Amino acid sequence: MTYTVTDPAAVLALYDRRIRRDAVDHAPENLIERVGDVVRFTGPDWNGILWSGLDETTADAAIAAEAAHFDALGVDAEWKLYSHDRPADLAERLVAAGFVAEDEETLMVGAAAPLAVEPVLPEGVRIVDVTDTEGVALMDEAHRAAFGPGSADTRELLLRCLGQDTAALTLAMAGDVPVSAARLELYPGTGFAGLWGGGTVPGWRGRGVYRALVAHRARIAAAHGCQWLQVDAGAQSRPVLERLGFRALATTTPYIRLAARRD
User: Fold this and answer.
1) What is the pLDDT of residues 82-94, one digit of tens each?
2) pTM above the 0.85 mark?
């Protein structure tokens, strides 16, 4: 069956099944476990819940079990809640169990092939594929300028992406100055690829740099046989993505439970 962006319900069902419920990760340092009606992810870059199939009778016990699991590991955990997840009051149950909501984002999906066009860049700007630690340092510089002070965790994630055949790191450079940075994550066997980062420094926004990085990554994804590009879009990127043909499928909110700090 062929799914199109004009059928958002079908694409969302495909995303839920392939990326969330039946998630597979080929990195040896990551662990995906299916515990009852919960899919749990543990790794050096992220810990949390990818998917759950709960109802009013099972939700509280599952939340408590997952909270206890991550507390025992001593790590922060995120329950990645989507607007169509059940039960309908799952958000309130998470808050009652000590999870705290962060900013809502929009799950958006676009067809890769139509987006895989030649990037159009402002004069004096070029796209550079990042393959070494110097490039990661420039990406971190761009992210700090775009989003505010960065973190060591972000840098470590980017460093682990180097040399992986399921990740591509990209910079937009104006001379020697990084003006935007983004990454692509390929999810083999799913038909999906994820667009992450995409932070453009304030002085370069509205000039097509973000759109160019979308096109560049779409070309990489299409070359790897990916049908769909997925973005967890914030308020700034959503209008741009809509103009490019992405469709909003749901909203997603991180619910964070901080690890107990031991002296």
Assistant:
1) 999 999 999 999 9
2) yes
